[in-house]
Design a protein that fits this description.
Blueprint: H1 2-10, H2 12-27, H3 37-55, H4 58-69, H5 73-91, H6 93-108, H7 117-131, H8 140-149, H9 153-174, H10 195-212, H11 218-233, H12 243-260, H13 263-270, H14 274-288, H15 290-297, H16 304-313, H17 323-335, H18 340-363
Length: 367
């Protein structure tokens, strides 16, 4: 009992979401249909594979390579941000964060005096959110909105290319706050990795990416292929999955499901014009995340631009604004549990700063 109590004390995000989920069920109802099982299964599979890459030594190897190509700490952060921005365009923001942030956090273990670790971690998460907004398949809300509105691809890319350009400039300017400490004096021993297992895990990662992109069905591919293969040779990886994060997402989906059924919210959305719809996308994303916000708003307006820009820029801000934010926060908490308060403070400052800047700027583009 004491271990359970301490677990919930140390994982306040889970504790808070569990309490709110119970309250929402008392006010509304509980339905298993509220839960996005694809997200839960996909997160489980991805976390399982990332732990596998950690144990076979691949993360340490990649960290060494990144050090090799970086002359100073600022350049290192800039390289990671660029990888996150580009990677999220093709792999989705969740996959980009789950893949790149552990490499960066692993790298920090050999750079104990590195002053930019908080800002670097935050900017990697921000870059993944902003980069994923560029293509229709970069994140779940774009996949849904692109299909729902049948937006012409050139039109979609025109809207989002300006967001990408401003995001690149903003991120580049923010990296100037990272100190330019020399990395040339750091000598790392070559850390070999197990190539056969890495090849197997890489194959499974490709399978997971195809699942995320809806090419393969998650219902049987993740439990019957990914989990079964991992269990057959490294069953201990299951012990290292962050089940608290998975439970947090379950609670979160229950909360969002009850909010989405509130009649007064639907009536409110029907009365809004273009700019108001845009602001609603920004605001709702902060409390129910941008994916449910897209599902909630889209049926009540034909203003495609307002919804698409609103929910994509709305991924900035709170931890709840994007599910990728929650993933990034929990990864940082695992590696640096005693420094989460400082990380959260900087995360909030950077995200809300960018939210007000980008949100205000693109407000004038909405018709």
């Amino acid at each position: 009992m004491e271990r359970v109590t301490n677990y919930f004390k140390n994982n306040r995000l889970l504790s808070g979401s569990l309490v709110l989920a119970l309250i929402s069920c008392l006010i509304g109802r509980f339905s298993a249909d509220f839960i996005d099982y694809k997200v839960i299964f996909s997160l489980f599979g991805l976390m399982l594979l990332i732990q596998g890459f950690e144990q076979v030594g691949l993360l340490q190897y990649l960290a060494q390579k990144l050090l090799h190509f970086s002359k100073n700490s600022r350049q290192l952060v800039q390289l990671m941000i660029l990888l996150s921005l580009i990677g999220s365009m093709f792999l989705t923001n969740d996959v980009a964060i789950l893949t790149l942030l552990p490499i960066y956090l692993k790298l920090l273990s050999v750079l104990p005096k590195f002053k930019g670790r908080f800002l670097g971690s935050v900017l990697i998460i921000v870059a993944a959110n902003l980069g994923s907004s560029f293509f229709p398949f970069g994140n779940p809300q774009n996949l849904y909105l692109y299909d729902y509105y049948h937006v012409p691809l050139p039109q979609f890319l025109t809207w989002m290319s300006l967001v990408l350009l401003v995001s690149l400039i903003s991120l580049a300017l923010l990296t100037l706050f990272v100190a330019k400490d020399s990395l040339t004096e750091i000598n790392l021993e070559n850390s070999p990795f197990e190539r056969k297992e890495t090849l197997l895990l890489s194959g499974l990662m490709i399978v997971m990416i195809l699942v995320v992109l809806d090419v393969l069905p998650y219902q049987w591919v993740i439990p019957a292929v990914v989990a079964l293969i991992v269990a057959s040779y490294r069953w201990e990886l299951f012990k290292h999955v962050d089940y608290g994060l998975l439970m947090t997402f379950v609670c979160f989906f229950i909360i969002v499901g009850n909010i989405g059924e509130a009649q007064f919210i639907k009536e409110f959305l029907q009365r809004l014009n273009g700019k108001q719809i845009y602001l609603a996308g920004l605001g709702l994303s902060q409390v129910i995340s941008n994916v449910p916000a897209a599902f909630l708003i889209a049926p009540f307006t034909t203003n495609q631009q307002a919804v698409i820009l609103g929910v994509n820029i709305g991924g900035l801000g709170t931890l709840l604004a994007s599910l990728a934010n929650l993933i990034g926060y929990n990864l940082f908490r695992i590696y640096y549990p005693k420094e989460t308060k400082r990380f959260f403070g900087l995360f909030s400052a950077v995200n809300f700063g960018l939210l007000f800047f980008l949100g205000g700027l693109f407000y004038f583009f909405i018709h």
